[in-house]
Amino acid sequence: MRTSSNPAFRNLPTGGGHGNYAGFGQPYQAQPYGGYQGAPPTTGERPITIDDVVTKTAITLGVTLVTGLISAWLVLTNAVSPMALVVPGMIVGLVVSLIIIFKRTPSAPLVLTYAAAEGLFLGGITGVFEAFFPGIAWQAILGTFGVFAAMLVVYKTGAIRVTPRLTKWIIGATVGVLVLMLANLVMGLFGVNLGLRDGSPLAIVFSLVVIGIAAFSFLLDFEAANEMIRSGVPAKWAWWAAFGLMTTLVWLYLEILRLLSYLQSSD
């Protein structure tokens, strides 16, 4: 059974049923999801469908976009200090995401709270970048959705198959870049610059690598959501899938925003 680098898609329950995510058909084989064999649903709840995943993801993304636009506007108009939005949004988003992950129970209020908090966080940061680099916000948004759409097409057409080897490679690469980011942060506290986040050519290359890894992570997210549909878990788990996809979208957007700032600074 394949796994995912996204903690939101690990150790999910299984049930009976069939289906496909993103319209990409694969033969179904009864297997435990994420290494955990749950009992088929007995509450009479209908199984999750692709429409459930798309709808809940759209709602979650919509909340993030609305709160993000409001947050960015407040920063750009100097109505609120950026840190007054970024810090609370980051803290609330982190705490709520940990609750969702460790609680392992789908909750629409928690997912929407996470989406709103991320909107405040991203909007505050975007407002600061937009003040220095006019137009960068829309470029980052379009870039993020462009990458998402491209990877969805890649997954749907089967151009790249989610194999165990690819899964291990993506997870290993994700862990690797996270370790490098942490090392760069720690060394920076001691005045040592590793050159990964200073806008240098090395930083640009590193950012491109991170964007590539985040893009490929969507393949694992799509496959994980597809497994949920094929396993026939209850429809409420669509909120869990939406949360998992949002975490990757947030990561990708931040990295694209950073890369664009590097490129515009060098002009």
Query: What is the element string, with H for helices and E for strands?
Result: HHHHHHH
Low-confidence stretches: 14-42
Largest sheet: none
Helix-and-strand structural type: mainly alpha
> Count of DSSP helices?
7
Number of strands: 0
Please, could you describe this protein's structure?
It comes from Saccharothrix syringae (Nocardiopsis syringae). The chain crosses the membrane at residues 58-76, 82-102, 109-129, 135-154, 166-190, 202-225, 237-254. Pfam families: BaxI_1. The protein has helices at 50-76, 82-103, 108-132, 136-157, 164-189, 201-231, 238-265. The protein is 68% helix and 0% strand. The radius of gyration is 19 Å and the shape is globular. It has one domain. Residues 14-42 have low confidence and may be disordered. With 267 residues, the protein is mainly alpha-helical. It contains 7 helices and no strands. The termini are far apart.
